[in-house]
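Example record for the data management plan.
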Amino acid sequence: MKKIFQYESTTVPELEQIGKRRRLLSWTQRDLAGKTGISQSLIAKIEAGNTKASYDKIKAILTALDEAEGKTHGTAKDIMTRSKDILGIKETETVRKAAEKMRKSDLDQLPVYDETKKIVGSITIQAIRDSIAEGNYDIAKKKVKDIMGDEFPQIPEDTPIETVSQLLKHNPAVLVKKRGNITGIISNADISKILY
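Corresponding structural encoding:
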């Protein structure tokens, strides 16, 4: 059974690799603890899958391992689409309007916000497709809030690209924030920015 790290309804299936990666570097759990500031006993529990660790602790461990392996290729801030360019849709708009917005912008997903501009969920082409497959042919007239899914995960700007990539395996997009404010969004298309 895979050990999965749960954070804001997002899974990162890298936990089972922490012990293996550490051993390949010839590090003890105490070595990893010294490099991350996390107790050796918590690292042992994480490696054994016996605890739910905070996002910050997992990020610190994965960052230390990535740096030691020479895998760090930048951060979320380096590849995100800036907040002024983020397309979203109000929860009271129709699904038809959301679909048109996604089609015109060549997107598969949109963050959903309320009247105060707070992000409250997400809508995806997949959710629309699934609703039609279930026989909801009048979906175009429904409000976005009637079919929206969970919010996209939110991560700090300094999150390593490798972690972002793992999050995108299970989510259509990730929101980037700084001091509580959304500063950008990352979708699968943005990951290719590391190539140039």
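Summary line stored alongside the record: Strands lie at 5-7, 10-12, 81-82, 89-90, 109-113, 119-124, 154-156, 173-178, 181-187.
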